Amino acid sequence: MVSAVAEALAVSATMAWRIGWSLVLGFALSAVVQALVDKQTVSRLLGDDRPATLVRATGFGVAASSCSYAAVALARSLFRKGASFTAAMTFQIASTNLVIELGIVLALLLGWRFTLAEFVGGPLIIVMVATAFRVLVGRKVVEAAREQADRGVAGSMEGHAGMDMSVDGDGGLLKRLVSPRGFTSVSRVFVMEWAAVLRDIVLGLLVAGAVAAWVPDSWWQRLFLTDHGTWTLVWGPVVGPVIALLSFVCSIGNVPLAAVLWSGGISFGGVVAFLYADLLIVPILLIYRKYYGMAMTVRIVLVFYVALVVAGYVVEMLFLLLGLLPHRGGVSVEKTGVSWNYTTWLDIAFGLLAVVLVVRFLRTGGRAMLSMMNGDPADIR
């Protein structure tokens, strides 16, 4: 048993070593953007579900990258402040699945083709979700959801979503960013984002390490109907979101497990559908019910699931036609531990940047902010 646990931890450590620097880079860039754009402006620009508005919602979501829990709480906050429900859902999808740190981690663990697939499938899912909500979500359902959202039922990361740490005042963006207030704001957003997502990243790495070390490839191959031709392609996007639903891990935390599933034989489209299903994990489904009521939750689940499955099929067929499907042997789950190479240097460099931001955060009253992350947003307002 000790040997088995050690093997699982070695796999987890190797994955963490490979993606650590990219996470710091991604969250630092996200912190810069969030320090310059206030949430009231975002809400004001997302008041309807016209195509131009949904494009803005996608852009804001990409800029305000978050873990799944924080994204869901932030979407509710925008909805309460006047954003349309469809725009809020678009923002939520983009802020978890179309962000730079996710793309870098995908490239490092699975290869650039998976990163490309993520950014091809994302807009496709947004279009399908927006179209479906126009048909399935009537005014009465939206009004009931808004009434439920206004009841102040706090969920995971609700306090974090309620905080607006943007820097206002005169001067251009660069002047605000390099000011002492700007530096403080960036450090606060950076640390708060890490605090929100760290649990899921660690859990994802541990689950992926355990699965890679303990579950034989033959079991995955039977589950995924590997080498069954058309049935393999059909089954992958159907079962991928179900595995994600039961994994309890957010978007970035899902990537190590996606590498394990791909190595185990799931189809390319199945990986795509699995990665996007971070907004359908069991804890978030319970949050949807508290935020918007059962009627809206049922619609969210049905629309999201169908969109994920269809996107998995479309992306796989598109990549097949373009000759971009990755070779199965091109991705492997490393079990050899860390080594001294360029990745180590990047981890050290960006680790120092993280230390600087954390020190600034602690010296400017950050500890009190951490205590409010899961609190009632009324305490923040």
From TrEMBL:
One Pfam family cited in the UniProt record for this chain: ArsP_1
InterPro entries: DUF318, UPF0718_permease
Gene Ontology cellular component terms for the protein in this record: plasma membrane
Membrane topology recorded in Swiss-Prot or TrEMBL: Multi-pass membrane protein
Main subcellular location: membrane
TM region(s), chain numbering: 19-37, 57-79, 91-112, 119-137, 201-220, 232-254, 266-288, 300-322, 342-362
Iron recorded as keyword: no
UniProt subcellular location: Cell membrane
Keywords: Cell membrane, Membrane, Transmembrane, Transmembrane helix
Membership in a protein family: Belongs to the UPF0718 family.
PANTHER family assigned to the protein according to its UniProt record, in alphabetical order: PERMEASE RV2963-RELATED
Name of the molecule in the record: Permease
